[in-house]
Design brief:
It is a single chain. It contains 22 helices and no strands. With 520 residues, the chain is mostly helical. The chain has three domains: 183 residues, Up-down Bundle (Growth Hormone, Chain: A), CATH 1.20.1250; 40 residues; 238 residues, MFS general substrate transporter like domains (Growth Hormone, Chain: A). The protein is globular.
Length: 520
């Protein structure tokens, strides 16, 4: 084949647009619900959900989503990626409708779990289809657009949720998904070609089951520990059981003659290093985004809509830089671009260790912009490196690994950094609450949200309690931000040691097959 001949699909850019629409609705749903939680807790205007029920309305989605990502990436390669995308969109739309009209918290939690099933079917096949319809020389640019859409959706979710809640009832944050999904189904049916692994072989049933059980148990332990503390036997039983099952999965896959994941791939630096970087970055970034929302809404007093708007610099940086990162990788190499992106991310995350109640808000916006810029120059080269280590027909495996690592690491980041935040807050505020009534003291000592709720019952003493709670929260935020920066900094060492540079990244080789042959 002549080196100038493009092997991509003739409608590949239109197909990319359809995939971005499909992806937007899934990623948006990860963030849009957060701004509706207070309304859902209202017994008059919402469902009267308790704090635990609110947590599970988020976590039922995350658990199912993370647990099934890998499985659906593998099955999509075998059964047909277009088919899985259509099934996922229909399930997601149906679950969104059920969520919007849920009559009780239990119904909402169940509907959100069904949304997780649909989302897990959609996300991995979007990246698989990109790898299948784009020539390797254009794939980096296409993945840059894909990554930019992810970053944009993460940031505009709170904005869209806040805007809907100002004009409509709480179910609108779910109902907005339905017309988008309907459009996506029509466009996928018309434009996206079917593709699958031409030599699927036998289905690795035990491997798939082990991956699901291990990931769900591990994710459950991480999330539950972050919410209620890591000092309970149930949490550690879930985490240890998850790790043991995943270790069993790895051992089984190494011996299997038809593995769903060839674990020997992790001996290939081009595959293993970016997977590690994705995990480290999302651990750090999701944890910081979690406490940033509390900082902006409680300490600084912004509304949910205003808070969402303050995240727009992050989105703008993603939207601008992610599509351009492929050209940067071509010019300077994936190692250099990823290292610079990580350095900017470390700088932005670490800067929150110096933010307080009086920091000018434009300074905080600069930090968000730097974080967006850094992540925009990490994710595309990392994802491209992961995908190029696999032949096209195995694209679903690479996509599933990348997305599963991102979800699990993000959950772990929120859980661990949230636990650090809570522990530091409680230790700092405990010595200052002695004069409060017992009920207010317990609430204020639990969290900054509890302190604000208690302050509403105290009358003249309220400003003093709020000042104490804000000081304790900001101090705790500094510890969590410093830890996040250290975790992200480890990613720089991984990139410098193991990520391939410019001379090691072939521009025209088809999807990394020589590397696989060498690794085998």
């Amino acid at each position: 084949m002549p080196p100038h001949e493009n092997t991509g699909h003739p409608r590949r850019w239109a197909i990319l647009g359809v995939l971005v629409i499909s992806l937007l609705v899934v990623v948006l749903d990860n963030t849009i619900l957060n701004v509706a939680l207070r309304t859902l807790a209202d017994p008059v205007h919402g469902l009267g959900a308790t704090q635990g029920e609110l947590e599970w309305s988020i976590n039922s989605y995350t658990l199912v989503f993370a647990g099934l990502l890998f499985t659906f990436g593998v099955l999509g390669d075998r059964a047909g990626r277009r088919r899985f995308l259509l099934i996922g969109l229909v399930l997601f739309g149906l679950a969104s409708l059920l969520s919007a009209y849920a009559q009780s918290p239990a119904q909402l939690i169940a509907a959100r779990a069904l949304m997780g099933v649909g989302g897990a079917a959609i996300m991995p096949v979007t990246l698989s289809i990109i790898s299948n319809v784009f020539d390797p020389r254009e794939r980096g640019r296409a993945i840059g657009v894909w990554a930019g859409a992810v970053g944009l959706a993460v940031a505009i979710g709170p904005v869209l949720g806040g805007a809907l809640l100002e004009h409509y009832w709480w179910g609108s944050v779910f109902l907005i998904n339905v017309p988008v999904v309907a459009l996506g189904v029509v466009l996928v049916a018309l434009l996206v070609p079917e593709s699958r692994d031409p030599r699927p072989g036998r289905v690795d049933v035990l491997g798939v089951l082990l991956s699901v059980v291990g990931l769900v148990a591990l994710t459950y332990g991480i999330i539950d520990g972050g919410e209620h503390g890591f000092d309970r036997p149930l949490v550690w039983a879930a985490i240890i059981a998850g790790l043991v099952v995943l270790a069993w999965f790895v051992a089984y896959e190494r011996r299997s003659d038809h593995p769903s994941l060839d674990v020997r791939l992790f001996r290939v630096p081009r595959f293993a290093a970016p997977v590690a970087v994705v995990g480290l970055v999302f651990f750090a970034a999701m944890g910081v985004m979690f406490f940033s929302s509390f900082y902006l809404q409680l300490v600084r007093g912004y509304s949910p809509l205003e808070t969402g708007l303050l995240f727009l610099p992050f989105a703008a940086a993603q939207l601008f830089f992610a599509p351009r990162s492929a050209a940067m990788v071509h010019r300077y190499g994936g190692k250099a671009v990823s290292a610079v992106g990580l350095a900017l991310t470390v700088l932005a995350l670490g800067a929150f260790a110096f933010v307080d109640e009086t920091t000018p808000i434009w300074v905080v916006l600069v930090f968000f912009f730097l974080q967006g810029t850094g992540m925009a120059n990490i994710m595309p080269p990392a994802t491209e490196s992961i995908m190029s280590a696999l032949p096209r027909e195995k694209a679903g495996v690479g996509s599933a690994v990348s997305n599963t690592v991102r979800q699990v690491a993000g959950a772990l980041g929120v859980a661990v950094l949230g636990s650090v935040l809570s522990a530091a807050y409680r230790a700092d505020v405990a010595t200052t609450l002695g004069d409060l009534p017992s009920g207010a003291r317990d609430a204020a000592g639990e969290s900054i949200s509890g302190a604000y709720a208690a302050a509403g019952q105290l009358g003249p003493a309220a400003p003093q309690l709020i000042a104490v709670a804000n000081d304790a929260f900001v101090s705790a935020m500094h510890w969590a931000a410093a830890l996040a920066a250290v975790v992200a900094a480890v990613g720089i060492l991984v990139v410098l040691r193991w990520m391939p540079g410019r001379t090691e990244t072939p521009a025209v080789l088809p999807a990394g097959e020589p590397e696989l042959a060498g690794a085998a």
